[in-house]
Amino acid sequence: MDIELGIQNVARPVNFSTDDSADQVGAAIARAVNDGESIDLTDDKGRRIIVPAKALGYAIIGSETKHAVGFGAL
Questions:
Q1: Is 49 left (phi over 0), alpha (psi -120 to 50) or beta?
Q2: Out of 9, 12, 62, 64, which could bridge 2 as a Cys pair, Cβ 3.0 to 4.6 Å?
Q3: Spatial distance between the Cα atoms of 9 and 7, rounded to a whole number of angstroms
Q4: Reported pTM
Q5: DSSP readout, 8-47?
Q6: Across-strand partners of 49?
């Protein structure tokens, strides 16, 4: 699933993919914002993305479907 986090006063969003479900990501973000803690997520390559909740401008949580792109001979 693709995630986009907009950070306040930063021109470019943070984009990454994760194996977590939309519910898991949404709950982690909501919990961090409610508790005033950092948002701590792991991407599908095992890297941790940590963003202070107070710096979050927006979050776009994409669909869980993965699209395969293929090119065939015409």
A1: beta
A2: 62
A3: 6
A4: 0.79
A5: TT-SS-EEEE-SS-HHHHHHHHHHHHHHT-EEEEE-TTS-
A6: 41
Burial bucket for residue 5 (CB in 10 Å: 0-12, 13-18, 19+): buried
Quote the percentage of the chain above a pLDDT of 90: 81
> Identity (one letter) of the amino acid at 37?
E
Residue 5 parent element (H or E): strand 2-7
pLDDT digits (tens, 9 = 90+) for 22-51: 999 999 999 999 999 999 999 999 999 999
What is the per-residue burial (b if ≥16 Cβ within 10 Å, else e) of 17-40? ebebeeeebeeebeebeeeeeebe
- Burial label for 2, CB within 10 Å (0-12, 13-18, 19+), is middle
